[in-house]
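If you are new to this repository, start here. Below is one unmodified record pulled from the training split, so you can see the exact layout before writing a loader.
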Amino acid sequence: MGRLDGKVAIVTGGCSGIGKRTAELFVEEGARVFIADINADGIGAMIGQLGHNRCDGATVDVRDEAAVEKMVASAVRRFGRLDIAFNNAGTGHFSPVQEYALADFERIVGICLTGTFLCIKHESRYLIGAGQGGSIINVASLNALQATEGFAAYCSAKAGVAMLTKVAALELGRHRIRVNAIGPGLINTPLTKGIMSVPAVAEGFVHESPMGRVGEPEDVAQLAAYLASDASSLMTGQTLYIDGGQSLKKYPELFSAFGVG
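And here is the target side for that same chain:
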């Protein structure tokens, strides 16, 4: 038996990196998964890989409330219920604060924070109505607590996700809905390929990690599966940092690595 037998999950940003591996693991553990992503071809590839009986999906921009509401309704219509939500959609941008374009700042906050809020809002509405409880898992970041040069919007948004998780957990516990977050450190994904391509940055992350390595999507997916399962039934309102211990030390100095004055 799998840890998630009989359960249905939504995974946003489920076509690559952390979201992809988490969707795969949820299916391996017995769940059926509805993938929301902006990559239509990627959704098709995931359905082909995991099988249409276990996986479906739709293109969704998490900043669009109507699309998020439809996402939840589509998942329930397709698989009959909803038990788990993995709110993972996110992106980043690098710029000194004095040069940060407002449009870029609003885009990062919109996807990472507002998008997470909209997902929680509509996922919890269904879960409250269904009366069966559930587990909502948000993806925050090490940057929710560790400031980083050039990441004004991302750090602010992810700190917001950590606090939003606490507030949602406080409000939704009476409905037996648990809300937790995962705060990954540097994870080897397509989104981090640019940073990892700079030797000084890659070496800096390894040097500042007591475990001596960067993370892999599998590391985060395994933690997500625990939070999605009944094994974590007393855990709510927490942000669990999975960063190889980097939060105990410091973030590499990105300005010097990228030649920013």
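Two things worth knowing about this chain: The radius of gyration is 18 Å. DSSP finds nine helices and seven strands in the chain.
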